[in-house]
Write a structure and sequence with these properties.
Layout: E1 2-11, E2 15-24, H1 26-62, H2 67-98, E3 107-110, H3 111-122, E4 129-133, E5 140-143, H4 145-161, E6 168-176, E7 179-186, H5 220-230, E8 234-240, E9 244-252
Parallel strand pairs: 4-6
Antiparallel strand pairs: 1-2, 3-5, 6-7, 7-9, 8-9
Helix pairs in contact: 1-2, 2-5, 3-4, 4-5
The structure holds adenosine-5'-diphosphate.
The site of adenosine-5'-diphosphate has 21 residues, from α4 and α5.
Length: 268
């Protein structure tokens, strides 16, 4: 939006002149919003795990703790430290992408084993089975396998995280108009209409009572979008509040006759 203010200037020819000055504040506002959200995420997401790491390590330093309790405390410390490391990793990833410094290793690869591999890592986590649907044959694209795995991990992690109490998420790989589409569907909380345009924004989190307990930074989807677009793909989603969400990315299919199947990177 524009801020308008009036400046009076004296001019020898025109006499006293009123000057209307327009200043675009949109960018400034956005920068302020990002700074506020960064401070709030950092204070909450860094301080909460740090407090518990400090608390449990102090108990262990100051008291004699029974071995089974010690095991529990160390596992909490490890879990919280892992969370911190994830947050810092996400933050650095986004910085690197935005600075145009993320490099991509583009190789011909088969999306099928890649999808199977990541889905298998989420199968059974937090009480959710991952139901996989794959097409026949090779699903070749030219892309960066590690980055695609990171994207799929993020989508599956959200699907599981935002469908508490449900026991299944679907992961589908299918062809569509010369592209391969990887789709992750959950049957959970869904996304309110007013939140939909903001979903890929940095630090954006839906602020609803039903998800206040669910940890996160609002960086995951921002990273996913930037990466998929850098890789020449497209990301989209549908969601119905209270029924669930489907996130998908599409990548241009690689024409198989143009590729020697032997050069496909079947694993990382
Ligand atoms: P985070 O999960 O760390 O908050 P994301 O960028 O991954 O950050 O997601 C942003 C917000 O979008 C989340 O806070 C959540 O409210 C909403 N969201 C993301 N994925 C889903 C999903 N599958 N179902 C419902 N809401 C989702």
């Amino acid at each position: 939006y524009f801020e308008v203010y009036v400046q009076r200037i004296e001019d020898v020819v025109w006499g006293s002149v009123k000057l209307f000055v327009f200043r675009d504040r949109t960018k400034e506002e956005e920068t302020n919003r990002l700074r506020d959200e960064f401070v709030s995420v950092v204070s909450h997401e860094l301080r909460t795990p740090l407090a518990s790491i400090l608390g449990f390590s102090e108990i262990m330093l100051n008291r004699s703790v029974k071995p089974e309790k010690a095991q529990k405390y160390i596992s909490t410390i490890h879990g919280e430290a892992t969370r911190l490391s994830g947050l810092i990793g996400d933050f650095l990833d986004l910085q690197r992408i935005e600075a145009g410094k993320q490099s991509y290793r583009m190789l011909p690869l088969d999306l099928k084993p890649l999808t199977e591999d990541v889905a298998a890592q989420w199968d059974g986590r937090a009480g959710h089975a991952v139901r996989l649907t794959l097409p026949e044959g090779v699903c070749a694209v030219r892309s960066d396998g590690d980055r695609l795995k990171q994207v799929l991990h993020n989508l599956l992690s959200n699907a599981v995280k935002y469908s508490p109490g449900k026991d299944v998420v679907d992961c589908v790989l299918r062809p569509e108009d010369g592209r391969w589409v990887v789709e992750v569907r959950d049957y959970g909380l869904g996304i309110p209409e007013d939140a939909k345009p903001k979903m890929f924004g940095k630090f954006y989190r839906v602020d609803n009572s039903d998800r206040r307990q669910i940890g996160g930074t609002g960086l995951g989807l921002a990273i996913v979008k930037e990466m998929i677009e850098d890789l020449g793909g497209e990301i989209s989603f549908d969601s119905v509040l209270g029924e669930g969400s489907t996130f998908r990315f599409a990548l241009p299919a690689l024409d198989l006759p143009a590729v020697d199947e032997a050069v496909l990177v079947l694993e990382d």
